[in-house]
Amino acid sequence: MRKYFLLLCVLFIGISSCKKDSFNAAKQAATDDALIQAYISNNGIVATKDPSGLYYEITNPGTGPLPTTSSTITVSYTGSLLNGEVFAPTATTTAALSAFIKGWQIGVPHIAAGGTILLLIPSALGYGNSSPSAAIPANSVLVFTITLSSFTN
Q1: HEC string of the chain?
Q2: CATH number, domain 51-153, options 3.40.980.10, 1.10.10.10, 3.20.20.140, 3.10.50.40
Q3: CB neighbours (10 Å) of residue 67?
Q4: Average pLDDT, stretch 82-100?
Q5: How far, in Å, CA of 120 to CA of 144, rounded?
Q6: pLDDT digits (tens, 9 = 90+) for 5-41
Q7: For strand 86-96 and strand 116-121, is the pairing parallel, antiparallel, or unpaired?
Q8: What is the pLDDT of residue 77?
Q9: Which one in 17, 107, 111, 142 has a CA-CA gap of 20 to 30 Å to 150?
Q10: Share of the chain above pLDDT 70, in %
């Protein structure tokens, strides 16, 4: 009898200690959208909203064909948070576009080689409700300025 009581207690404690995830994706998307719209308004940005929730402003469309998610791209970029904190100072990299966050995969194909784009990426298209580093908190809206130097398919 004691064994069953002890087992029942352990089971009850185990179940009751499980923390329920209180993350609400729809609520976070609405919060991100409001933050992005305020940022756009406060900074005089003329942005287009993609159906995914990504906002972008093409400052230079570049010339020639457009890359695809299967392209290997060479870019220069700067990344920051909405409050202006830079988490990725100007850097240049070459990699498959598919290796980047979803916001880049949606935004970069809007420009050709030589083009520059401003991406305002809601958290769901960035790192979501996880934090990839101390510089990028969970549920962060990301701001990237990207110049596409070249790409290959």
Answers
A1: CHHHHHHHHHHHHHHHCCCCCCCCHHHHHHHHHHHHHHHHHHCCCCCEECCCCCEEEEEECCCCCCCCCCCEEEEEEEEEECCCCEEEEEEEEEEEHHHCCHHHHHHHHHCCCCCEEEEEECHHHCCCCCCCECCECCCCCEEEEEEEEEEEC
A2: 3.10.50.40
A3: 24
A4: 96
A5: 7
A6: 333 333 344 444 444 558 899 999 999 999 999 999 9
A7: unpaired
A8: 98
A9: 142
A10: 86
**Residue 4 banded pLDDT, cuts 50, 70, 90:** very low
Amino acid occupying residue 69: T
**Spatial contact of 103 and 126, defined as CB atoms under 8 Å apart:** yes
